[in-house]
Amino acid sequence: MDFLSINPYTHARLAALPGHDDARIERALERAVRIARIWREGGTAPRAALLVEVARLLRERQGAYAALMAQEMGKPIREARAEVLKSAWVCEFYADHGAAMLADAVVASDATDSRVLYEPMGTVLGIMPWNFPFWQVLRAAAPILMAGNTFLLKHASNVPQCALVLESLFRDAGAPEGVFQTLLVRADRVAALVEDARVHGVTLTGSESAGRRVAAVAGGALKPVVMELGGSDAFIVLEDADLDFTLDQAVRSRFQNAGQSCIAAKRFIVHQTLADAFAEGLAGRMATLRQGDPMHEDTDMGPLARADLRDEVLEQVRASVREGATLRMGGVAIPGTHASMQATLLTDVEPGMTAFDQEIFGPVASVTVASDDMHALQLANASRYGLGGSIWTRDVARGEALARALECGAAFVNGMVRSDPRLPFGGVKASGLGRELGVQGLRAFTNIKTLWVG
């Protein structure tokens, strides 16, 4: 079956790419097996050199890669260029610091020598989403490759051109055959890949339902997994927050990439004394967002990645209104477009409503009023998700105390939640398990071996 590449703004068909059959998948697995020992035993220097060259090519080809993202999944061109540069950064970070992070750790014991070793596991399958089609892949692949593993990419079905371009990127950078490979396969082929003895671990970024299915198969095969799943991040605004600054960050956090981000601010929990001013200020800033063609430099928000995704978001908005939320603005598709909708603001949102309980993966801001700090914290933690959260206040000590009590994997004070190669990234509860990035992400797919010498 062909993989169709469709422009979500124009609905133009960009490409039809044939899926990989059993024979091609088998050849890819065999190539990974053949190169694994060489890649493992070559040490960290050639791995770092490969990542440096990948980063160089990313910077050199920034414009072309950004245009591909804009056309294939609708990311505004300015955001797409930034994504390419961030992808280069993660490669450079692990090239610069990976060897030291993987060095033996000497531990004092009753042995004459005892230490902890970080050895490659083998081949890791990466199941990646469409919303950040370069960054999500490279933030997973860079540490996995630096650790001495090989990488098989199963990308989202609506970004097949990005998937193949990433494979060619590594080939052009000089990666040995089999070190980084793309498989154009549907979701129904994933279980067999996870179960295959030549695959030694799985990393997945995607929906909670996809994560649960893959984790169940991997658990049955006793294979390690890293799962970065959904999120419904709380954005807590205390009464002493710098309102103008906070509103600017609120709009950026919620509406970049048309709200299609796991760590976007989705639930705005605002102190009651500031709630009206916050809602008014948010509506005013949302009204200035320039929606349109993602290839245009002045576009702030493009379409959603597919029409069915837009329709799902609009139904969540309608359900929330039926449940008692107030639609302040937006909530409709943009006429004459394939997958675009207006930036949407819901107020009077309460627990039990769709906009509070579910993840809305699109350009919808939901405002909930809190009576005090403890009420705000209670509301923030009243979610099945636990990816990120942020506190906005002029009192940094107060903000840090609340941030420490948030049930999430990344808590920010006076800053929007974002991933950073230097820091571990991941969630708790239904937002996943394990960590990407940082030293923890580098070691996630290593055999942490104890060496004891008497």
Number of strands: 20
Pick out the low-confidence regions: none
Oligomer type: single chain
Estimate the global geometry from the Cα principal axes.
Answer: globular
If helices are DSSP runs of H or I spanning 4 or more residues, what is the number of helices? Answer: 15
The average pLDDT value, as a whole number, equals: 98
Q: How does the helix and strand content classify structurally?
A: alpha/beta
Share of residues in strands: 15-25%
CATH class of the largest domain: Alpha Beta
CATH topology of the largest domain: Aldehyde Dehydrogenase, Chain A, domain 1
State the domain count: 2
Distance between the termini: 59 Å
If you compute it from the alpha carbons, what radius of gyration comes out, rounded to the nearest whole angstrom? 22 Å
Helix residue percentage: 40-55%
- CATH superfamily (homologous) name of the largest domain: Aldehyde Dehydrogenase, Chain A, domain 1
What does this structure look like?
By secondary structure, the protein is α/β, with parallel strands linked by helices. It has two domains: 2-229 and 431-453, Aldehyde Dehydrogenase, Chain A, domain 1; 233-420, Aldehyde Dehydrogenase, Chain A, domain 2 (3-Layer(aba) Sandwich). It is built from 15 helices and 20 strands. It has helices spanning 22-41, 44-60, 62-73, 77-102, 135-146, 160-172, 190-195, 208-220, 243-255, 275-287, 307-322, 354-357, 373-381, 396-405, 438-443; strands at residues 2-6, 13-18, 105-106, 113-120, 123-127, 150-154, 180-182, 201-205, 225-228, 233-237, 265-271, 326-329, 344-347, 364-370, 385-386, 388-392, 410-413, 428-429, 432-433, 446-453. The protein has a seven-stranded mixed β-sheet, with helices on both faces. Strands 7-6-5-8-9-19 form a six-stranded mixed β-sheet, with helices on both faces. Helix 3 (62-73) packs across helix 4 and helix 4 (77-102) packs parallel to helix 5. The longest helix has 26 residues, at 77-102. It is globular. The N and C termini lie far apart (59 Å). The mean pLDDT is 98.
